[in-house]
Design goal:
The chain is α+β, with helices and mostly antiparallel strands. It has 5 helices and 8 strands. Helix 1 crosses helix 2. The N and C termini lie far apart (about 45 Å).
């Protein structure tokens, strides 16, 4: 069986990506209740602490979502999840019976106050390395809604390649939304990383 996603804490220059805990409730509600933040990811912004508590409890139990913690403020300002992917149905990534998945989908949100600072690309790059080097995944997928140009920039900066357009079933929003889908294969990521190590004279 694959390790729980949040069994490790990841550290970048400015961030800690760690498991959620019960003391994070107020931080979680602070950004999850901002209108327009959750909607960009397909869920309604939270209306109460009780709603955030239920979802936080699920994060803690499922161990698939990192808290994105800004080190200088020592508080969670967003989340980054690693979830089942639509690509697991493709022949290239079908897991053997009873075996761990070979591909996962990432999704992320961050408080509006921290948009435009490059924090999410920093977090995503750390999770990419973790997914391929520690979790042993063969690929990662990610998607964005057509109007979300900021997420598109994050995806492209992190090396994902456009795969095609699908449909996201936004149950909480009560509608189906076109979704632009991207993929990053472990083999391509390794090639790019090795190319960066080449020193030219």
């Amino acid at each position: 069986m694959q390790l729980p996603i949040t069994s490790h804490t990841l550290e970048t220059e400015r961030l800690l990506l760690r498991a959620w805990n019960t003391g994070d409730l107020e931080d979680f509600f602070a950004y999850a209740s901002e209108p327009g933040v959750g909607e960009r990811a397909g869920w309604k912004h939270h209306q109460s602490l009780e709603e955030s508590q239920r979802i936080l409890d699920a994060f803690i139990a499922e161990q698939e979502v990192f808290a994105v913690v800004l080190k200088t403020e020592n508080r969670a300002i967003g989340s980054l999840g690693v979830h089942p992917s639509w690509a697991s149905e493709l022949p290239d990534f079908a897991a053997p019976t009873g075996g761990p998945p070979r591909v996962k989908e990432i999704g992320y949100v961050i408080s509006r106050a921290y948009w435009g600072r490059g924090l999410i690309p920093e977090a995503v790059r750390a999770v990419i390395e973790y997914a391929f080097e520690v979790l042993g995944l063969e690929a990662l997928t990610v998607g964005h809604f057509p109007e979300n140009k900021q997420s598109k920039r994050v995806i492209e900066k992190c090396g994902f390649t456009y795969f095609g357009t699908g449909v996201f079933h936004a149950v909480q929003l009560g509608r189906e939304i076109p979704e632009l889908r991207y993929m990053l294969r472990r083999s391509d990521w390794l090639k790019r990383r090795q190319a960066n190590y080449i020193v030219t004279e």
